[in-house]
Design brief:
heterodimer; A: ABC transporter involved in vitamin B12 uptake, BtuC; two-stranded antiparallel sheet; B: ABC transporter involved in vitamin B12 uptake, BtuC; two-stranded antiparallel ribbon; 11 helices
Chain lengths: ~325, ~290
Amino acid sequence: MQSFLKFSLTTLLLLFLIIIPLIFKNPYFLHIIIMAGIFVLLASSMNLITGCTGRLNLGHAGFYGLGAYGSTLLVMKMGFPVWIGMLFGGMISTLFGVLIGVPCLKLRGSYLAITTLAFGEITRLAFINLVELTNGPLGIREIPGPPPLFLPKIGLIQFESKIVYYYLIFFICLICLLIIYRIMNSQIGNTFIAIREDEIRAETVGIDTIKIKIINFALGAFFAGIAGSFYAHYVRFISPDTFTLNETFTILTMVVIGGLGTFWGPVLGGVIFTFLPELLRAIADYRMIIYGLLMTVSIIFMPEGLIGIFRSLRTKKLTE
Amino acid sequence: MSELAQQIVNGLVMGGVYALMALGLTLIFGILDQVNFAHGELYMIGAYAAFYFLDFLGLGYFIAMLMAMAIVAILGLFYEWILFRPIRGLGHLPAIISSLGASIFLWNLSLKLFGSTPRQMRTELSEVTLNLFGISLTVQRLLVICIAMILILLLYFMIKKTRLGKAMRATAQNPEMAALLGVDINRIAELTFLIGGALAGAAGSLIGPIFLIYPAMGLMACLKAFVVVILGGLGNVIGAVFAGLSLGVIESLGAGFISSAYKDFFAFIVLILVLWARPEGILGKTAKKV
């Protein structure tokens, strides 16, 4: 009964997502939904690291930016095809993730949070200072979009309208989230949680905790890089201002308020916190003040976020 | 030669500030096993408090500094009550997130309250320049080193020689045992945050007249202080002092002789090198505590 309900709800949600561009044709609205897709991907990938293994990654905007800049530079300076460039954008993030992750993840405790916080700032400084490569604070303009794609039965798809980009991010999110879902509900997902709950015990039952932590971190960085490379080829303009620490904090707010360590939490958080500033223009200026407050209050009073509240409501109903 | 000496002295000034910041962090880590990501905001608010006391109330510099230290120490106490006590013993992650949230909150609130234009604190001490052996140094810079050293020595003797210090060390070694023997852990935690806050407030009001004061200054300072804490060995007081001074000198030499645009890179490179080569810190044995 439970699983049937879950299945039908998920199917309904997917159907709804597929018909969205047919109902809402407003390009501004579609743009926000596309951004929501990017943030759902970013929040879910951060959750994979922070929620599942309990290692705080504060350099997420850095990985996001490395994906964007990596893909853009490969396409524009080295003539890579856009699709390959996007994939390589993810891989560049992974590479840096491993370089940063290995020394920190060999150790227990909070080293990763500190090092990734520094890493995020350093990548931003690098984007600003490596002027020959990145055009400094002015950013890179006129990034090419993906080439026309021929799909059997549908025909030639031009990447020009928002609707096409909507389906592209929908497709990317679907695949990435499916992978994340499978990872979280598999053997390796269980080892993540074992490490989060008690690393020493995880080690004594034979889990190679260092290897698992590095794999986990590399995966998170990869998905963030993919989100970044999609962003670059969608907006067609990138600058260091997009990949700031505030971006990382926003993503962390999505994960914490949505629900740390749950699959749906970051998805919910990503959608809510992309739409909220647009709906409440008046508070957009005070956004970060509110996010900071929400983060603190949420971790103290509802450590499992909104999803945790839903769950406890449901179990209450079931036990009554 | 005098260029080198000048850079080293400048580095020591900055290093004194890093050491003051790092001491608070390392005490909180060593004694309570919690990581305070909102430590930089204590420093930033300390600088602003001193600035307003000095400029608007027209108090003398030393009185302004003492008042700033008091205010920030009390803010530290609120940190302990609100951010850390409710989630003590639940591991590192909740404490990091709750303090990070507070950091974002305070930083952006200050941006609204104080504005984003940097402020400059004016004291008569930063006008006077001394010339010693070809090194020019304002009295203010000399003051940073002296006051930092005095505070560090005071703290050291407090920890090593007083009953309270003994209680703090006992809590660091084994909180349950200390509690059983009659140490009130909550009092010790409050004391630790008071001390950490006062030191960060002192650091902020010392640096105010030398550099600019702006709401985002806490972030980089906090990061540097973390590097110092790791470099000195987590929870190691003497290590933090040496590491703070070394990081200041390394940065100053790097900025002077390599490139000043990449000044903040050096701390990061030091961090990564230490994590690869000596994660227990340059002075630490194995994460030696206070």
